[in-house]
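Fold this: Iron ABC transporter
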Amino acid sequence: MMAHRSILFWLLFLLPSLLLVTMVLSVNIGATGLHFDALWRGGDDADASMAWLVLTQIRAPRVVMASLTGAALGASGAIMQGLFRNPLADPGLIGISAGAGLAAACVIVLGSASGFSILSSVWAVPAAGVLGSFGATLTLYLFATREGITSITHILLAGVAFGTLAAALTGVLVFRANDTALRDLTFWTMGSFAGSTWPRIGILSPFLMAATAGVIWLAGPLNAMLLGEGDARLMGYPVERVKTVGMLTVACAVGPAVAFTGVIGFIGVVVPHLVRLITGPDHRLVLPGSVLLGAVLLTGADTLARTLASPADVPVGIVTAILGTPVFIWLLARTHDGVGV
């Protein structure tokens, strides 16, 4: 365990600096080189115009979207693991990602088959993803709540069942899809930041601001929830409100992000474990650490995704799975050896 001063240095200086360096490198790296010298000269130079266009309309929104999505997934994983007291919990476990994926698959397949403009517009898939994720969250919450008491166990089990059902229905849609829809659906389900734009970031921002307020409020109550719901009540925390705020925070953070970028795995599971190796279990440190480290890792993963097979894009979900699986197995091995995470 690191000393308290070293942990604060890691959280307040090292992680923000690492995020800044990663974002700058990610902006600079790509299929088309950025001529910063021409950009600095400005004027009507063609190289300067091209560099400005690539910087402001392609690279910068993509890097910002990757950072925000990584932060959302990292924080959501930490909240889920604290709320469910389950080290494997992440937003995909309770069907939030699966609900967004099923709704998006419906729009892609039906839009391609019918040719209706409203279904084939660029906003239809993200809108469906948002509605699907919030619909899944609301359904699970109502199912697991009786007489004002929400059962975490019922949410967990029902979420696993719902996720399996949504995956099966998505499989049926894939089976019925034509070639165009199948290509779009396959790429979306593996995640990509290729369609990132400033208007999309503008739509995502209010949801993330609401999620940030939830993260700040949850830090103390989640520490108490680690001791069990009974102990948390004795300590004066409103346990049922903590569950409600936790679910809404995860839905606000993950639903819109998944809707715009597709399903991206392993960030929500792995990042909180890596942060706890440094900070310990205190959620006042785990939550901001997960926000920053999630942003760093997903920004770096997206940089790899668009440079490994340049000029083509590798779906970022493939990169996070390749990088995240060995790390997750290493974390499991530490637990098996009694070191703990």
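The longest strand covers residues 145-146. The chain has 14 helices and two strands.
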